[in-house]
Structure formats: C-alpha cells, structure tokens
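Final report, Chapter 2: Outcomes

The project's central promise was a pipeline that accepts a single protein chain and returns its three-dimensional structure in a standardized token representation, suitable for archiving and comparison. That pipeline is now operational. To close this chapter, we reproduce one record exactly as it appears in the project archive, with the input sequence first and the structure output second.
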Amino acid sequence: MSTFGFMDIIIIVSGAYLVYVAIQMKRTGEITSSAIIGKGCDVKKAKDPQGFIDYMYMKSIIMGVLVILSGALDYMNDMYWNIPYFGLAICGIFLVILLIYCKISMSAQKKYLSPK
C-alpha cells in the first residue's frame, strides 16, 4: 500500500468519525466533540445548543458521507483505475466541499453557540 492509499484510508475513517459524532450528538443532545465546533467555543455558555445540534446534524452526516466517498474514490483510483488527474479533481472537489462545510459550521456556531 502506498502512502496515498494510507492517506485515503485516514480520510475514509475521518468521514466515518464525523458521521458517528453527528449521530451521537443528535442521540444524546450534547455537543462533546471538537470535530464539530472550534476550540474557542464554550458549549457550557452557549445560548441554544439544541438548535445547533438540529441545524448541524444532517449537514454533518452529508459531509461525513462525502468525505468517505471522496476517500474511497481516490483509493479506488490509486489502486485499480489509474485515471489521470482523477485524484486531483477529487481533491479539488473535496476542498470546495470542506470550505463550504466550515463556513456553515462557523455561521452556526455564531448563531447558536455564542454566549448567552
């Protein structure tokens, strides 16, 4: 397995972890992971944590699935397909999706998790 294949597996696991965190967050009603929120955000002082959970739940599930899909497609290309520039295209699409998710997450943190 090449280094790129190993990185693809790490990306797949990261996407699965994001899905897991979103499901746990929805099930327990608690925000416990820094995978969803930034370091400077204090959940204990948040004005509407349940609103944040409701808003970010499906977006985090979709993002996690897209991360898994991008890692899996890149892995399949590296191991079997060998389509030129496919990995670069997947990387570019992944970056755009990641930036959009970060923007959505930061906006939700400002709206729901800013101090009371």
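Archive annotation: Residues 3-30+40-112 form one domain.
This record, like all others produced under the grant, will remain available to the consortium after the project formally closes.
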